[in-house]
Automatic annotation (TrEMBL):
Organism the protein comes from: Devosia insulae DS-56
Subunit and interaction comment: Homodimer. Interacts with FtsZ.
Function: Activator of cell division through the inhibition of FtsZ GTPase activity, therefore promoting FtsZ assembly into bundles of protofilaments necessary for the formation of the division Z ring. It is recruited early at mid-cell but it is not essential for cell division.
Coiled coil: 56-97
Alphabetized UniProt keyword annotations: Cell cycle, Cell division, Coiled coil, Cytoplasm, Septation
Name assigned to this protein: Cell division protein ZapA
Pfam families: ZapA (PF05164)
Amino acid sequence: MPEVNVDINGRKYRMACEEGQEQHLLGLADRFNQHIDQFKGTFGEIGDNRLTVMAGIAVLDELAEAERRITELKQDVANLTQVGEALTHEAEELERKFAKRLNEAARKIEAISSAIDETGAAAGA
């Protein structure tokens, strides 16, 4: 199992990860360290443990917001799917009604055509 050294708040930590995940772990550590640096810039030196806890809570807050947004998006997808299905059914119903009326019109045209043919045949006889 590969190991990488990550730098969090000026300290090096050796961490194991799955094969091929080294860069991902380094990126996560860098992102976490950015939170710590941000808090250091805002609050100054308030202690390593406190900074780490604050950064951890900030990351979890981002995660909670992302999960909330995902839930909203899933609901949006479900609503759009439902609307799409309703429109599909409505279009199918309109198509069925149109086909029925088109068939009725075709029968009437056929009947008129037959009547004209009969009238023309009777006049010619």
